[in-house]
Write a structure and sequence with these properties.
This protein is an alpha/beta fold. Helices cover about 20% and strands about 35% of the residues. It has 7 helices and 28 strands. The strands form 7 sheets. It has a 6-stranded mixed beta sheet with strand order 8-5-7-6-10-9, with no helix packed on it. A 5-stranded mixed β-barrel has the order 22-25-24-26-28. α4 crosses α5. The chain is elongated. The two termini are about 60 Å apart. The structure holds adenosine monophosphate (AMP) and magnesium ion. The site of magnesium ion has 5 residues, from loops.
Length: about 425
């Protein structure tokens, strides 16, 4: 196994992020049925090919009228009109509503020609004389009342959704209304995970002396699924460099991106570090960020390779700050990061100038602001702070500390569960 001659390359966080994002070319577009489109990256903007709503219709169950006919209606001098038609939803009335006529109309039914307003049932008095129904109005109605105009929601040619958008359940409603059932989306990246370490056990293995259970692979599988990727393989491998090199090569075969865990730091048995020479276009990095300084990155046979550190907090932070944005760009998403939230530091948060820190924080709403409190000691081997955290507070390179009370930006991981509903 060749070792890498020149030692790790030092980068600022911004340089690392730029290098990674610049290396990403979005994958091909694929067409999926509407029912599979949620959460995917829309790859072509969608325009309305017909107006929405497609025809002018009633927003209430009531009587379609000509507003002019009711101009002088008063409680003491009601206006009574004959009901000349009944229009259920789904049926087009062929009868033009003449002056001094009313038509029963249901919600969603097309407004008949001649009518320009709808008076809800509950606002009129109905009377019938034999088969002839009549209706009495005690006040005027505004022209256009309870009428939904064709095209008021979207006109022909209007942009309904912009390329790069993450398709939401509500976007699916809009696409359905527009008759789009085959949706162009970014292909799901196939991601292979290779987890290194002689000390690692599967989750279902009993603990033995000196060993811990692998927590990073299950976390990454969940994070990858959440951001639109498919895990093509997830393997554990010993710290034997030749074994790692062999598995690493295999991992690239059926993947668009390969992530390794561990084995990139300064230890004697860091096998990913030792396999990089073999890989070709990949190098060891020291990124000025905390946690997550030791990393490896490369583009191998046109596929992304990101060597993540081993500590769980480092994996989580590097994934949020660098890997996830790359995997989102691969799919064609416009928004690469988690939602950014302005927060205020509840206590002073120490960092170091020249380094970008990602601090696991809990959030609480007080006095109109989000207050960020460290979710635990900044120890990258600890799992509970990550589980407890609502967000990662970002301390930019230029700051040595965020003083208590100062504002900062945070990447929102999840909404605080104790928020009053
Ligand atoms: P390394 O960079 O390989 O030296 O790993 C750094 C630390 O992270 C060590 O304490 C490892 O035991 C731990 N670690 C590495 N990989 C994993 C993993 N998949 N799950 C949990 N801990 C890990
Ligand atoms: Mg290791």
């Amino acid at each position: 196994v060749a070792s890498i001659g020149a030692g790790p390359r030092s980068l600022s966080f911004a340089e690392a992020r730029r290098a990674i994002l610049d290396a990403v070319t979005p994958l091909a577009t694929e067409v999926v049925p509407l029912s599979d489109a949620r959460g995917r990256a829309l790859r072509e903007s969608v325009r309305a090919e017909h107006p929405l709503p497609p025809f002018t219709n009633s927003s209430m169950d009531g009587f379609a009228v000509r507003a002019d006919d009711l101009a002088v209606a008063r409680v003491e001098r009601p206006i009574e009109l004959p009901v000349v038609d009944v229009i259920p939803a789904g049926r087009l009335s062929r009868r033009v509503l003449e002056r001094a006529e009313a038509a029963r109309i249901m919600t969603g039914a097309p407004i008949p020609e001649g009518a320009d307003a709808v008076v809800p049932f509950e606002e009129c008095e109905r009377s019938s004389f034999g088969t002839l129904e009549r209706v009495r109005f005690t006040r005027p109605v505004a022209r256009g009342a309870n009428v939904r105009d064709a095209g008021a929601d979207l006109s022909i040619g209007d942009e309904a959704l912009t390329a790069g958008r993450e398709i939401s359940p509500h976007d699916i409603a809009l696409l359905a209304a527009l008759g789009r059932h085959r949706i162009p989306v970014g292909a799901r990246p196939r991601v292979a995970i290779l987890s290194t370490g002689d000390e690692l056990l599967r989750v279902d293995e009993p603990l033995r002396e000196g060993a811990i259970r692998d927590s990073n692979v299950p976390m990454l599988e969940a994070l990858l699924d959440e951001c639109g990727c498919r895990v093509s393989r997830a393997e554990r491998v010993s710290d034997d460099p030749s074994e790692v090199a062999r598995r690493l090569h295999a991992a690239f075969e059926a993947a668009d991106a390969v992530l390794t865990i561990g084995g990139v730091s300064a230890g004697d048995f860091d096998p990913v570090k030792q396999s990089l020479g073999d890989l070709g276009n990949a190098e060891l990095w020291r990124v000025a960020m905390k946690p997550g300084r030791p990393q490896a990155f490369g583009v191998v046979d046109g596929k992304l390779f990101h060597g993540l550190p081993g500590n769980p907090a480092s994996v989580a932070c590097v994934f949020e700050a660098l890997t996830r944005p790359a995997l989102r760009k691969l799919q064609g998403f416009m928004a690469l990061d988690r939602p950014r939230l302005d927060v205020r530091a509840a206590v002073a948060i120490e960092s170091r100038e020249g380094r970008t820190d990602f601090v696991r924080v809990t959030l609480a709403r007080r006095d109109g602001a989000w207050w960020a409190h460290p979710a635990g000691e900044p120890i990258s081997g600890h799992l509970t702070p990550q589980s407890r955290a609502h967000a990662l507070l970002v301390v930019p390179e230029a700051l040595a500390v965020v003083p208590a009370g100062d504002s900062a930006e945070a990447l929102l991981l999840r909404w605080p569960e104790d928020m009053p509903g």
